[in-house]
Amino acid sequence: MKRLLLVLFLFSLSFGQKKINIKGTVNDIDGNPVPFTNVYIINTMYGNMADKNGKFSFICQLSENNLLVATIVGYKDFSIELDADLVNGDITIVLEKEVINLEEVVVTGSSFSTVKGKGIVVSSREIYTTPGGAADIFQAIKNLPGIQLYSESAELYVRGGNPSETTFLIDQGTLYHPFMYENSSGALFSNINTSLVGGLYFSSGGFSAKYGNALSGVLDLKSSSEIEKSGTQLGVSLANVSFSTSFPIIPNVLSVEFYGRKNFTSPMEWLNGKFNDFTNNPDSDDFTALAKLNYSKTGKAKFFFLLSNDKMGVNINSGSYFGEYRNNGKKLFINGIQSDVISSGILLKNSLSYSKYSTDMKIGIVDLKENQHYAKMRSDLEIIIDKSGKFNAGIEAEILNDIYRGKIPTDDFNLESNWKTIDKKITRKRTGAYLETKFSNLFCKGITLSTGLRSDYFPEAKYLSFDPRMMIGYSVNDKMQIKFSTGIYHQMPDYRLFNSNDANYEKKSMQAEHYILSLDYNIDKANSLRGEMYFKNYSNLPLENSDRNYSRDGHGYAFGLDLMYKYSLAKNLGGWISYGYIDTKRKWLDYITLTSSDYDISHNLAFVTRYSPIDKLEFGMTYKYATGRPITPVTGANYLEAYNVYEPIEGVKNSIRLPDYNRLDFRITYLNQFFDKYFLVAYVEMLNVLDKRNTQNYYYNEDYSERQSVKSYFGKRIIVVGFMISM
Amino acid sequence: MKKLFILTILVIFQLNVCAKDEIMLLELTKKAEIAWLQFNEEAIMDLYSFSERLVNADEKNYDAKYFNLYSQYLLINKAMVNENDELFDLYYDASLEKGEKLAKNKTYRSEVKVLLAAITMMKIANSPMQAPFLSGKVHAYLDEAKSIQPNNPRIAIVRGMMKFNTPGMFGGSKEDAEALFNKAISIFEKNDFSAEFDPQWGKLEAYAWLGRTYESLENYGEALKTYNKVLEENENCGWVKYNLLPKLQEKMKEEL
Description:
The structure holds two protein chains of two kinds.
Chain A: H1 2-15, E1 19-28, E2 38-41, E3 47-49, E4 55-61, E5 67-71, E6 78-81, H2 84-88, E7 90-95, E8 111-113, E9 120-121, H3 124-128, H4 137-141, E10 166-170, E11 173-174, E12 179-180, E13 189-190, E14 197-203, E15 217-223, E16 231-237, E17 240-250, E18 254-263, H5 266-272, E19 278-294, E20 300-317, E21 322-343, E22 346-363, E23 366-386, E24 389-409, E25 419-439, E26 447-458, E27 463-475, E28 480-491, E29 510-522, E30 528-545, E31 549-570, E32 573-587, E33 595-596, E34 603-611, E35 617-626, E36 630-631, E37 634-640, E38 645-650, E39 656-657, E40 661-674, E41 678-687, E42 695-700, E43 707-711, E44 718-726
Parallel strand pairs in A: 1-7, 8-9, 10-15
Antiparallel strand pairs in A: 1-4, 2-3, 2-5, 5-6, 8-14, 10-11, 12-13, 14-15, 16-17, 16-44, 17-18, 18-19, 19-20, 20-21, 21-22, 22-23, 23-24, 24-25, 25-26, 26-27, 27-28, 28-29, 29-30, 30-31, 31-32, 32-33, 32-34, 34-35, 35-40, 36-39, 37-38, 40-41, 41-44, 42-43
Chain B: H1 2-38, H2 41-57, H3 62-81, H4 85-102, H5 106-126, H6 131-148, H7 153-165, H8 174-189, H9 203-216, H10 220-233, H11 238-255
Helix pairs in contact in B: 1-2, 1-3, 2-3, 3-4, 3-5, 4-5, 5-6, 5-7, 7-8, 7-9, 8-9, 9-10, 10-11
């Protein structure tokens, strides 16, 4: 009996159920076949892979629970209970795309990026090893076309705009003071550690509606997202000591990075001789922490923390003042960003940032403390309409409080007597929103159209701006693309101009219109050319006015041509050449007529090249040339007996120029790996090899009868040596 | 008599199961070989899908899990060739997670660590700036694999690929790569490696990579011989037949 039961049992395993044919098609939501999808019945071997047309079929035996699943990487898993209707007919499976990483819609007018598809690609390594750049992002970007070499500072003068016209973002948070050693001549380097940067987007014009309150440019950085990054770096040079470490706390879920740096100048002075008449050698320290959290398959969060402190003291000579200038700056920046795919094809990003900047400046009778508090929130939503279309929207709100306390001079030419106290709190708020769309292959193949509308409300001015922006591109072939970008851009002027006592600027925001025509030609993967012509029309600029201190009648323009050739002539020889021509004039502030602005630096040339003659060794060279910038000459002076000082008499505004700027930097880098684990990068950098005494300004004697050059920071040949070990 | 009958049934059943496992493993290795030889999406996805269905039917089918990981390694290669960064990252993240889980099984640990090293090496190739952080990881995977199976030829292959692809300034060496590929070939030829689990792949890779190494050392004669050796072993090796060999012949013509 038992034997019979066993035989019956085995028989039932093989022949107890009816064999049926399951067949059908796998499509995406647009009806396109999804080839090679794996279609099978859960917990069984029954199944098959769809062919290249998305069709599948297989024979199976159905049991009680027959759950049919379809899986393929890049799409959401599909499952359905097989019933009699499905079994007897053709099954149509529709797969939804699983969106993990969405890229924002970016109107690529004049853009450069570390990411393919967002402009000319500039890699992190190119930034890190640009000779003369000291691995500083801002200094490296200054070698791109469209940026005028106004001074040796790290600040960006983009297409005739001053540095405040370029907005700087980290993970959507705005940082108003990214520099160290800020003073009247600019700031030499930034506080941003290059190794913490995961992506970079820089635009010198025609940028999308996503970016507000910027007339000229955008530098948008993303911190590193590598959750599994693990390692330690130690760097030592004559200019700084740095240490960084990164490690996962919970693998694939939570990781942290820490970076600390101490900058100094004494060892450099020991090797190269004194740079300047420092009373307190510049030194600074900064600390950065970055935490990255993957809280779900699609949900990510990052926290960025920056703390820095810098100080310097230097003797200065000016017509009215011979003495010491001291400055001590501190900053704190905290930013949190969270992003998640909230539905198929919909990405939401939220961020919240806070920064505090304080500075204590002393020069002559001036003793001024500034405390700035800034907070911002931002949300961005991206919706993929279909494979050729995207829709983007976002809102942001910010508040800035600036408190000035201390003593300032009554007359700006007299720093030795007559002062007044200041105790002012200035508050500025802004809310903004934008919408934009991007469509590829519109009307016909190769045409891309991006359109956007941005609106910002400035409560202090009670002003609401509307900025339409658009870009149309046409891919002539797979190598050549022509683009035209245009748009309106608004930015509030220096908020001190809203002071009703000494400014009283009319309630309106500064405006610029951009018109950019560009041609990109990709010769091959490693060689590319770009040529751009642009016209920027400024209006509503603040202009001194006898009735109300400042009117909004200021205006101006910038017209120019930017060229860039990024080359790789051989595997071991590459770099880029950039050239920019600009003609820019303004009538604003104290200008009487439309005249060359301070940033009208007609010709800018940068030649960056790297050559590795042998393994482990790389030679790099950067050559920069720029026309001298316009300045206003002093033609005489009036003696003011009451104050015992001379008041300068200025000549025609910006009617003379400083001598042309030339600088050649060399870098020799030795790279090696040992014990398969440790990387050594050792370098010798020679700045201003030609020992060119570049002038960054003039200073005058007491009665303004004689003038002398103020030499640039790198006004003599300087050698820097250093090394970095990664493990 | 009754006991004998039941025992016989059980033995037959067990033999059937074992034979079935053997057949499945043969099928997996065959599909893996085709996937590597053809290196087209269809063949690689066929291995991926088949191994995934085997795991679906039996959660403890570690052979299938291993070959599923191997198929992902090939898909990562394919995504890099096609410059599809999105797919690259999807496969890369998924394969690391699967690999680390599978490495907990002692029988498969060494082979899985070799695959994880190869996958991490692909990440370096796709994002060279990651090299300072990931190359140590590659070597750590290989060291661990070697501590379990000192004579595993696939360790020498991946180490050789690493030496071949790494720029000299970062410790790469074509001469070291040549020695490592020769070491792997020697193990294969002498049949000097045995293990409870042997996924078989690697012999043709070692020859093809050795050919590439000779070529980059400008030893074109040896490169030609080595490519021909691959085609003698299997004339369907598309990488050598349609890519490496014609390019070498063109180069040799130019030299003349």
